Amino acid sequence: MGRQTCQTYSIKRCSGHGRFDRKLWVDSPDYDGRVDVFQYYLKKVKLDPSLTPEKAALDTIGYSPAQIKHIVNESVVIAHQRGAQVSNYEDFRATMETYEWGLKQPLRSMSDDEKRNVAYHEAGHAVAQYLLKPHERVWKVTIIRRGSALGLAATKPTHERYNRSDKEILAEIQVCLAARAVEEEFLGKKLNGVTSDLEQATELAGAYLGIVGMGDELFSWLALGSRQDGLKALRSKINVLLKDEMTKVKKLVLDHADFVHTIAEELLRRGDLTGEEIEEIYTELYGEKQPELPEVTPRAYLDSLAQTEAPKLTDGDDFDEKNSE
């Protein structure tokens, strides 16, 4: 979400020199801290039993106390808008969605074909999220426009985490590429809605290979002082990695074609699906809950890198950093 995770407070020296010689880092509260903050603010409002401090704390990893206060106050407003005297968990969720993604702005003029495109695009993300990210839970999938996004598939962490493995980064890349995989395999076309997906996948692949040393070398582009130069230097290897992860995620969505189709159909019918509803669909189709994380080996593409020539760059070469929608 891009939320600031910590705040810095500077203490001025008493000597009168006007210098700042100490910084105190105040991180966002952990789960227990958020429970305490919610207990403080929720006791000031009338609540339905469905909204508890513990449940609210699970949804707000990374939130500051000020943000929690805002969410609680706005959930009261939403409850009043629907004519209720007490706030419930759905009011709380609606408040968070508006806070994080913006107001709902349905596009009534969108054609059925375009709605189908968006539905399958988001179904691709949702299927990959559900199957590849055991440390996160699908929170909401929607094809109702919010802000500049025609649709979205969002997850929430199941708990605070402070590092990620190579397998998890590769799985995240697959999640980014899943929408294009579904477009090609289920719709038979490529759509321009993957702009931010490809940008994020490229950034992740670049970091995987050129920052955290998870590829076949320990080179870090941070030493170059230029992110763009680093991406240029690794361009061919990044593309090999992206193509390899695309192959994997295409197999994943084809192996779970019924899951993709059902999510897309339900999105077209309802507009929104919660994570709980996604899990119900999976359980109904396959008779079990979310499977164990499949093996996502980082070695699959490394053999092909041995056959890849180093990139030959000239002064005229450029890396397309960002495309417009």
Automatic annotation (TrEMBL):
What PANTHER family is this protein classified in? ATP-DEPENDENT ZINC METALLOPROTEASE YME1L1, METALLOPROTEASE M41 FTSH
Where do the Peptidase M41 domain residues begin and end? 109-281
Q: What protein does this entry describe? A: Peptidase M41 domain-containing protein
Instruction: State the taxonomy lineage.
Output: Bacteria, Bacillati, Bacillota, Bacilli, Bacillales
Lineage top rank: taxon: Bacteria
| SUPFAM superfamilies associated with the record | FtsH protease domain-like, P-loop containing nucleoside triphosphate hydrolases
One Pfam family linked to the record: Peptidase_M41
